[in-house]
Amino acid sequence: MERLHLLSVALGLAALAGINLYLTVFATGLAIHYHWIILDPAYQSLTVLGDPVVIIVAGVLYLLEFFADKIPWVDSAWDAVHTVIRPIGGALLAIQVLGHSSPTMSVIVALLAGGTSLITHTAKTTTRLATNTSPEPFTNVALSFGEDVAVVSGLALIYHNPVVALVLFVLIIAAFVYFAPKILRALKARIWLVLQKLNWPAALNRSSTLPTELSPTLSAVFNRDNVLNETIAWAVPCISGRGRRIPANLFGALVATNEEAKKVTFVARRGVRPFLQTIDLDGSLVSHEPKFFSENLLILPAAGKGPKYLFLFPRSKAAFVEDIVAYLRERLNAPTFRDEPVASPMAVGGPTADI
Fold it and tell me: Given this model, what pLDDT does residue 137 score?
């Protein structure tokens, strides 16, 4: 049981070090120095953290992190620098908990602790990167305070009941690993939209035509289900938004065909698997919603009930979104026939609706 407690304390400190190494050392050192906690004989090796020099150094570094953590993008730069520091610090803390243990045990615990710190550090870093795409700074401040509270609360739980703390940390890490693909997709989408906005400001002149070709990868996905050999009217790259039938943050393209004027298809790849969803526009409302980092295309049911779809385009493609909305509104308001292909108004220089 004593070994389990030692392992729980070691990995618990490593997990918290991945969130904020300096606060973990600083708070633990203060608690030991001022006897807020009484260390069991098994943990006497941690008394070094109560040394005034260790407390001062950790306190100064924590003070720097306290302010850096609350400034958008500065926090991400700080996290990038600590990608190596936090796992190493977590491993050293875990080894210090073991005291004079066997070399084999020290190596095993160091590897486990370093991996644990890296996982919690990655969770923090990805969350911060996703938050930094928001133009307001208040979320960063709230997250920073929340992380500090989590570290202090975690330390209290570790020293009160290390086994319960270990179980809780394992559950949190397992939840992160499960949701990591969704988090990373969202992060990738946000970063891409931000870079597109920085590199390609919103176009001032309207485009005369919409693109009509898919990339080779997406073309293979579309052609696999195109059993009727429908011809593409336009195909515009975009990112899927939140919806019940289409997972969010998939990089793909929205495709319209000449034969199915009241339908569009979203094609993408979900990991290594192809993804295709056809959307029936009959009885739907189509609108254009500009946002700070993206131009959004909304497809909503006119009756208020039914699936809702959201597609995100870079700010530089605002003209494309307007053209798509004009195209779809015209097709929804005019009857079409499957045996009569419909030409896009943009392709022949026709007028487009103002949004």
Answer: 66
